[in-house]
Amino acid sequence: MMPAPGAAMAMDECGLHTKFAGDNYCILPPPADKGFQLHIGPTDYDNPDPRFMLAPGQEITNDLPGTSSNDKEVFFYYRQYRQRTGAHHNIITSGGGGDSGLGQRIATFNTLAEDYPQGGIIAPENKGVGINLPAHTSINVSLHSINTSEKPELREVWVNFWYRDAAEVTEPVKEVFSIAPMSGIPPGGDVLVKGSCSTAGSGRLLWAYGHRHANNVRFSVWHNSGGQKDLVYQAYNWEEPITFDYSSTVMNPMPDIGGKETEGAWSGVLPFKAGDSFSFECHVVNKTKGTLNFTNNTFTGEMCILDAETVGAGCN
Asked: Given a cut of 50, is residue 97 above it in pLDDT?
């Protein structure tokens, strides 16, 4: 059955004892009638497929295919994300996709372990929220991995998708993937990279995080409405970019309390209307000896991307 709302985050459920770091991130799949698990990784830990191996110092971003195991059309909302050490980003699309942007995004995350919504608690205002998935859908996983250790690492991902009653789903989810244009930041450059998206109608923001790389020192998001500009997301840790949930059941910390670089966000439901926008900003300080351009390279390239989900209207 589905984990009890508010239960501790599931970890180390598989009893793995491989020679690779990250065995503790493996979790068991949901019961077949309650959900399914997407697993990207080897079937033989003693002789893993080379696609899932990462040599010391190696960095790679590539697309890995999978298929959903549901034998009929389903809806889901609650997701449990786990991936081994070395993973940087993970973009999951149905019906094709990858970095090309084709297909429908059904999950995206940057941390090694995360549940959404937090603790499996679906807020009252989100009881009708769900994402549709046809039976046996082709799935693409765009996995960005980097090995900064001195030992080979294994690339492996586990994602649990928990079903929702189709009769209860009245609000389909829309994915937000907004890229701030950037290029040519010289060595020592200290710049603010800016982006924005505009809302076409009324809705609310469900969650958000900022995707960036090692030369980013701050990621901020504002909601702009009727001349008012509210800071709704602020974070500093590029390696483990925090996801903030905007719902009636979550109280987020306030950003920058007491002059300290405190990660924080808007608390409560975050509604928007037609004509509003979300602007975002990356503070980038180039600590390298080369020019920073928009690439997947963690330490020698940079990105500034707003990832989020909405219901109602999207943000284009």
From this structure: no
> Is pLDDT of 2 > 90?
no
Q: Domains for the chain: give ranges and CATH numbers.
A: 23-169 (2.60.120.230), 173-312 (2.60.120.230)
Cα separation of 271 and 235, whole Å?
A: 21
pLDDT digits (tens, 9 = 90+) for 119-136: 888 999 999 999 999 999
Contact 122, 164 (CB under 8 A): no
176 touches 268 (CB < 8 A): no
- Neighbouring residues of 273: CB distance < 8 A, sequence distance ≥ 6: 199, 201, 202, 225
Beta bridge partners of 144: 61, 89
Overall size of the chain counted in residues: 316
The answer to whether the Cα torsion of 241, 245, 246, 249 is positive or negative is: negative
Joined tokens for residue 297? 């390279």
CA 223, 229, 233, 236 dihedral sign is: positive
State pTM to two decimals. Answer: 0.91
